[in-house]
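Why run this: before we spend reagent on co-expression, it is cheaper to look at a predicted model of the complex and decide which construct boundaries make sense. The entries below are exactly what would go into the expression plan.
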Amino acid sequence: MAGPSFQALPGFRDFIPRECAVRNYLFETWRSVARRCGYVEYESPILEDTALYLKKSGGELSAQLFRFEDQGGRDVTLRPEVTASLARLVAQHQRDFPKPLKWFEIGQCFRYEKPQKGRGREFHQFNVDIIGEGGPAADAELIALAIETMLAFGFVAGDFVVRASDRHAWIEFASRHGVAEEAIPDFLNIVDKIEREKPEVLAQKLAAFSLSTAQVREFIAEPANASPAYLAIRDDLSARGFGDFIELDLSIVRGLAYYTGVVFEIFDSKKSMRAVAGGGRYDTLVATISDGAVDLPASGFAMGDYVIRNLIEETTHAAVRMEVWLQRNAAACDVFVVVADECKRPEALKLVTDLRRAGISADLSLTPAKVAKQFQSAEKSRARFALVVGTEYPELKLKILASRTEESGNAESAVDWLTDRLQQPDGPLLA
Amino acid sequence: MAGPSFQALPGFRDFIPRECAVRNYLFETWRSVARRCGYVEYESPILEDTALYLKKSGGELSAQLFRFEDQGGRDVTLRPEVTASLARLVAQHQRDFPKPLKWFEIGQCFRYEKPQKGRGREFHQFNVDIIGEGGPAADAELIALAIETMLAFGFVAGDFVVRASDRHAWIEFASRHGVAEEAIPDFLNIVDKIEREKPEVLAQKLAAFSLSTAQVREFIAEPANASPAYLAIRDDLSARGFGDFIELDLSIVRGLAYYTGVVFEIFDSKKSMRAVAGGGRYDTLVATISDGAVDLPASGFAMGDYVIRNLIEETTHAAVRMEVWLQRNAAACDVFVVVADECKRPEALKLVTDLRRAGISADLSLTPAKVAKQFQSAEKSRARFALVVGTEYPELKLKILASRTEESGNAESAVDWLTDRLQQPDGPLLA
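The model came back. Tokens follow.
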């Protein structure tokens, strides 16, 4: 087609109504699960001082920044993730809150990457963190929330698995094999890429640490290398009935430099997609960000909107659940007022206003139109009812659009009538 | 205090939980009013091609952009407003929707301005538009929604007023006084600043058009200069019972260059603040943005989050309504599970999980703590109930925290028990 002159930037999405409804489905599910697990919501700025990210994330993230100089000469960046901002907020405000803080956030992040399936240059993220509690109970509580979230989307046992590991196990392994402390971050980066790296490159990189690929693979394969924290988390999740959802996977170390202990990722069981969610413990970040002014242990995870949506759409029972929600939320209004006699438009306007005030979603045709056309508009808006205002006003006719049946009522009592009517099912009641 | 090293950028806000709850109150109110008036939600990207804004807004907006070059060499801008993006979306997707489109959006915008009371460098906006309907009925429907929104926040007649005007009236006035067509935008800019400009500067600027301040003021003061569209809108709003909320004010022309007809702003009655909301008709913007590929009349308005919040907080009945909502949403959980015997922690974890699954907001102390300390945590979380799991498990004790009364129950039926209990009032029932 001869396209219009402007398009969204590559990797940026337009949320037309159906897309926006999908987004809202994700947001509402995230928000309701977080709330029933006792987390409170916060939000941080989308634009931050670039130094906030350079200081802590390290690695590839710093190459992917939407970074620029603002009109005041500040070096600023569209946030690539939220944890650095959270650490900043917590360092500033933690005194006002009892510990541990259980906080969540739903917002947009930006990374300059090659747009592809499951990845854009902007994405929404569900960020959940527990701050001020250093033990594995906090990690377990977070993983439990991640599992609850998957269940809320309609996934069941067998659809997904939480793969957990502990950087402490790797740090011990590295020390035991003579890797210098300052070289450990580099070593962890090699382990992080073990599944994606070419074998010969991997062998070469490990050789620099006097290690072989076999040694590393052997360590990963040995269940006895599970850390005490991992075992405590597994027991905690088992008590909750979530034991089957968690697996030890020492190949997981996570890319960001700031993780300090337990780390985990959620995958679809076929591992056909990127991780649905990932997180872990970052006990030193708050101190780093606050220059040591505040020192609080922390653990958290994030779930992006791209992969979870793909997984929902490819998993029938989750897709059906979303579709039901979308259908239920697709109607532009519940009651469409049909103006059968233009002389009665003022009365129709008043009626629409009264219905809306009572919390009923109501609409009407803004311009004179044939009654048949107005009924079409009612159908297109997916309204349940068409309420006809005609010459016989204040008598009104109510057409039930699904069953094509009709009732009568009076304008005087229209609000009560429609309120009551909307609470009843449409069809004839079963005997 | 010795501050932490990082702060939010000037003009950018951290939404710690209470601030985030206020934001959510505004968002939920906006969203629910828009839905019950038959509008559907969309969202556009926060980052756009800069040309999208240079092409249409004109004037001071282009000096306030967060504008930069991305890693791909594109000239991009953090959106200063949403209407340009909406016009782009509509031009691309309008074929898929029946007309008129009634669309709304809630999102963040960015302008590099001097931060001050009622204005930051980022703000949230409620954007509402009707596209594809050129008559005054659409303008009235929009203004009705703006009024509904104010009523939903608890404002009443006398708190605020919609001041409306029509650029057509000014265009006629200008033509009648020999202002050249191409000079009309400049002339409208002068009228827009009439209340803020120094008298001598104003007189000088008008003299360039062979006009005097007195002539312009006289035109503004004369009710007979109301345009037919204004009169139709007033009649429409009167039919809805909103006649008292609208006033003719020809001094309103709005700053943005793209307005073509009716324009309006909402002010607090004392006019002690900037406009709470503003908008108008922009019949040529979709064609401009799409290089003539799509030509649809349009009308819309936006309400920012800064001024409305200030006005709510300074208006007792609106402030009380918000506070009630905030209190109702302030609890981190409904049920706090107290682990009185650490041997029963696995049972407590299972109980919390079952309650959450049933949609009940539940939490517990993540680490062993004295029972008194756990009750303190329960109070701090603002839970209604503390559910005690102790040696006598599966027997449970339920403490009602407000009344300090106690009930007993069994773990087996805890979900039903608590579900039922949460639906009842806390105190003793009145006789």
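Chain A has a mean pLDDT of 93. The CA atoms of residues 251 and 284 of chain A lie 23 Å apart. Bring this page to Monday's planning discussion.
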